[in-house]
Amino acid sequence: MESNQESRSLIKASVIAFSTAILALVFFILPAEYNLDPTGVGKQLGLTVFNDNQAAANTGAQGSSEKAPGEQNSVVLTVPAGKGIEYKLSVKQFKKVNYEWLTDGGEVYVDLHGEPAGDTSGYFESYAIATLPEMKGSFTAPFDGSHGWYWKNTSSKDMQIQLLFDGDYVIEGLK
């Protein structure tokens, strides 16, 4: 009799473990590792952000795209050793953009700036210039134009920057 009860306990424990593994797979592993989110829970928990970043980096962070109101965009950018890159948004006058970026280690030189639409003189206005490993803030565009970040990596190894942003803009991407 005791062996029969042990078998039932073992079967019950196996079913519970298998069920837990399936739930973990569907809710956590598929969204985080494979960008498959059949329930939407992965996106709510922020598990799809790295896959979204990689997809954006691979499929044209350089192209223009519209965003849904209230949507936060995220992109991972690589700044090669000893070089600089620029990421831009088209923003209308008096529209606000919230942002946060951080490196995967180390400081980068950053110039957050804007260039007026249609200007051919080379004029730009800097909003923040610093050398930091991360920055968080917002800006309100003083004029219609292209606004964004220039990062320069002065280290001897490539550096990744994760940029999160939301507001009222159209993505221009890498310049």
How would you describe what is shown here?
It is a single chain. With about 180 residues, the protein is α+β, with helices and mostly antiparallel strands. About 25% of the residues lie in helices and about 40% in strands. The protein contains 3 helices and 9 strands, in the order αααβββββββββ. The strands form 2 sheets. A 5-stranded antiparallel beta sheet has the order 5-4-7-2-9, with no helix packed on it. Residues about 50-65 have low confidence and may be disordered.
Determine the N-to-C terminus distance. Answer: 75 Å
Summed over residues and divided by their number, the pLDDT gives a mean of 83
Provide the spatial order of strands within the biggest beta sheet: 5-4-7-2-9
Structural class by sheet pairing and helices: alpha+beta
User: Percent of residues in beta strands?
Assistant: 35-45%
| Strand tally | 9
- Rounded to an integer in angstroms, the radius of gyration calculated over CA atoms is 23 Å
Helical amount:
25-40%
Major sheet details: 5 strands, antiparallel
Give the low-pLDDT segments.
Answer: 52-65
Contiguous helical run count:
3
- Which shape, going by the Cα principal axes? elongated
Order of helices and strands: HHHEEEEEEEEE
Question: What topology emerges from the helices and strands here?
Answer:
Elements: H1 2-34, H2 41-44, H3 49-58, E1 73-79, E2 84-91, E3 96-103, E4 108-116, E5 125-132, E6 134-140, E7 145-152, E8 159-167, E9 170-174
Antiparallel strand pairs: 1-8, 2-7, 2-9, 3-6, 3-8, 4-5, 4-7
